[in-house]
Amino acid sequence: MIVADETNGFTWGNDSLQLRFRILDDGIVTLETISVRDSTGGVRVTHGARTPLIEVRTVTHGPTNPAGRVVDSAIGRSLVYRGHTTPASDSPCLVLEVGDEERKVGATLTLCMPGEAAAFRASVTVTNEGTDAVSLLGVSSLVVGLAVDSRAVTVMSADSRWGAEYRWRTDRLRPGLLPLLPPGVFEKWRDDKWLNNAFHVSSEGNLSTGHHVPTGVAEVDGGPSIAWDVEAPSSWRYELGDIPGGGVYIGMEGPNDVFGQWSMRLEPGESFRAVSASMAFAAGGWQDAIGQLTTHRRASRTTREVFETAPVVFNDYLKALNGDPSEERLEPYIHRAHELGVDVFCIDAGWYDDDAEGWWDSVGEWQPSQQRFPNGLSATLARIRALGMVPGLWVEPEVIGVRSPLANQLPEEAFFQRNGYRVEELGRYHLDFTHPAAIGHLDRTIDRLVSMGAGYFKFDYNVAAAHGNDSANRSAGQGRLEHARAYLQWIDRIRERHPHVVLENCASGGMRTDPETVKHFQLQQSTDQWENQAVVPISISGLMSVPPEQLAMWCFPDVDDDNGRMRFALACAQLGRFHLSGAIDRLEPGQLQMVAEAIAAYKNVRRGVIDSRPFWPIGLPEFEADWIAGGLIHEDFTRVAVFRRGGDQSRQRLRISHLAGCMPTITSVLENDGNSWSWDPVAGELEVALESAPDALVLDLRSQDRVTG
User: What is the pTM of this model?
Assistant: First the structure.
């Protein structure tokens, strides 16, 4: 770590990123200079405006501007420097102390760099230092001001919906996301304290990515590029807006009074820790910034297990048993998965269903069905393990069906409530994991299932909890946030008790892919989508949010598929975690061989996936695009998957700039039926030809010799 104390400030950082903090004459602390140096070069961004690092809004001291932005808080403009330290820890950190002496509010900003990336994590804690209670309405996670022209900034943000996750879009900040004012008016408003322009992205409820993705990118013309994560397991927002005097700020926060029904009463001496946020920088373009953020995410995980043996998973739900498993129905799938080389066989929903009226509103006990498994579920799990695969089970731990016996056995306080009434959503009640009865029930459940032989769990979540939980005199948003944090603590304790067990996070597919949740699991589900044409853009775009070794990528081979469609289905999973489903028991011998070869090809590189960074050789995919491509860059290889979904164009050029000047050996990972490619070493471009659609190519490029002349 680099720490340098100076007369009017201090510098902190690592070899890739240095932050220069300035202490103004009145004690306000600002981030004055950001210096980035990476493999693409170096760049400095300065900002001398009074952009507070922390924003705090209370009932009695709100914003100085009626625009409702993350910034502009009265307390934020009054938090003066008290001191800073760099405590010894596994993750080098800077702790900055500030306070508002008049309003008796103290705040601590903790910045950490857990790895060597040009990135840091920010966490803010607010303390009531007075003798009267303080009612918080919002606390920022991170605010960074940049001395750049808003007309020189390109912003990337993503919408997300069930079955249509990670739909990225690119816009100019101005004109585009912010209004373009006439030159004279624009110049006048630059210095106006009432300036209120801002573009914001948000999601509310426990489906943290049910509307948008808490990752964003800003690319400044000529550099740098900045990527960020709001690490919130419930409601969140980020925004970009104008700074009075010129410049652009990026602000992030978790739930607040308007977005997320959040407020919190702090008694004297009490503190609140806001959700954290991370920010990464690159001297080059947006893909370099995402590469830095990917490295930072890896270093930040609470899951410390090595991902080298990333298992190939078969799940019996989508386009297969669809929630109707039994001992008899599972047998041909188990046998076929073993033949194909699958490592984990996960039995999805329905294994507990003995109810003639269906299981949706009766779940909660998680007891195996005797009708479906006459020899016992343990026997089926043992059969899976005897064939060399790890048995897995689907569980939705946070809900209790309204018809479940547990709905009347657990105490009322163990459930989400609003205004004294238990919250019901889609025939389910929602457990509150801050209550010991809820935790005790689930601890006993998971321990029992592990003792039966389960070594893998897919934890799903199919409600939204948008109403929140105001029990125990909490605001609805605070109750929801406390539950979400308690749930992740419970996940960590499972891994401590059962270190061999693998945990997959799912929420109607990718509806809870926030960075805070992802870092507690070994795997993150990408989608519930089962159409391969739509799975491809979802999976390739998902690499913006999740490191490849954690992102489950579906493939659904079908007996009616020709070779091109089979390749299309199998190619996507080569860039993340291989997740197989579909009616594999019905595949023809030639199709089975293609699946087995695809799994073997994945296993050849999965040890390298954990050190690779994603890239997009034709840019991020549009959801309806005819051509989509993604890849992984590793020091030993570059793997590219390119998909033709339709259209008349049979050729596509892929930009692979890091191999420019090289003459790599190029091999096809999957049988290619005569599809071709050619390499231009000068331009660093690969041209591929796919004569029909849908079809796909997966190519490995390995290079040792550099072209000269």
Answer: 0.95
